Fold:
Amino acid sequence: MDASHDPLAALRMEHEEIRNVLNKFEGYLKKTASAEKGEDRNNLINQLSEITAFMDKDLEIHFKREEEALFPVLGNYIGIETGPINVMIIEHNHCRDLSAAFKVKINNYLSDKDYKPLIGAGNSLSQLLSEHEDKEDNILFNMAEMHLTQDEKRNIMEKILTIK
Ligand SMILES: [Fe+2]
Ligand SMILES: [Fe+2]
Structure:
């Protein structure tokens, strides 16, 4: 099954996209911390602010594709209420909270020009999200490869394509 038919390959490709965005995000955070001119810092924070649009839209679609298409079917084999799927759902919600907190810090910066809280919040989000996608790639999706039938994969892929 290629990525257009295999839901796990498709979700792994979305992880690559998320990693690319996170690399940029972390780069902007570092430069914000070391910027010497307020004007440079403002520009960097504008870039960071643009990335929050990706978190609100694309990342949210990715989470929903896992939560609504993959997890319910994989949950028939490994459970949903406890175990790895439960941990993944908790981490999605934690990422959503951290992303909301990051946006608040950006707004605060616009009035008080204190950039440190924004960098702390951004780093927490980036670290959690990157560890989360690693766990899915290395553990959860391997479990899914072991359990899911071809039919189940086909149904999950169909469902994924309806979530956008
Ligand atoms: Fe996830
Ligand atoms: Fe994921």
